[in-house]
Amino acid sequence: MYEITRRDVLEGLLASGLVLGALPASAQDRSAIIEGAKKEGAFAFATSISAAGFPKFMDAFKAKYPFLDVSSGYYSAPTGRVLARVSAEMSAGNLSFDALHVANLAPYVTMARNGQLLPYRSPELAAYPDESHDGDLWATARVIGVIMAYNKNVLPPDKAPKAWVDMLKPEFKGRKLVIQDSAAGTSFNQMYMLEKLLGADFMKKWGAQQPVIVSTSAQLIDLLVRGEALVGATVDHFRAFEADAVKAGIVGVYPSEGMPVAIAPIAILKGAPHPNAARLFVDFVLSKEGNTMLNLDIFGVYSSRKDVPPPAGQLPFEQTKPLLPKDLADYEKASGNFPEHFDSFFKV
User: Fold this and answer.
1) pTM
2) Which of the residues in the chain have pLDDT under 70?
């Protein structure tokens, strides 16, 4: 059993007034939800998930509710692009999506404050610690760490970095490092926490190393496998432990200063065209069956559900020295400015 320790996040949420855990559960008539979903006939999902194995998750949901079309409205892209599309549709009053799932807590904090999320208290929340959800607007579906990685067939282990500050060594200057771009939710969470921990001067020196910038963690791993970069410096931690990556020589490194963490919530959008289908999907994502499939079978990431164990072969979450935001207002503001802030370090 794994329980996320996020006291700092909870304190931030309490300070922001967004934690609604003390509210009583909404009375949801499950039969009415199912009947409503049958009439809706479809479910539309916007997500940053790009895992090759994710279709089997949607297939499992479809198997439970065969009356739903779950493919026509499916949209997957990096976090920044997903949020831009959802925001544009909401602004135009033409929302086509029902649920949102991206690897960044900040937009959920903003959307909750702006009344853009549809309240729904899933009965599955009884299996989650209070600090993993806000009561009825969003709940943590996955927990992703950001670490470093290298290819042991290219870089000898004794030359590999052990700490974030090791990326500043002269041997890693000049397109030897590879990072994800500012559209990645995990990239924002990593860089926000490292700047808080190590300072703006560290970020400037990191940018001066002239890293290669890619769009996804999968592309990053591919560069390491091909020996076109020495160190992956923005690695969604599970990518380093995938069977093909390990077979190719990829080694994950938990930096000594700690592992920045990206929380990936699930939420229903206000104005969702298929709200009952979305409620069924949220319940499935948060259920033991769904959350085990999502976090262990497909991704190999950490779950905040109390009865889902940590992924096999990985460091227990508490031993990763997880780094989480302490000031939610500052975190939310930084997320809004992140693309320009990223460019100031890495595209000058």
Assistant:
1) 0.84
2) 1-28, 348
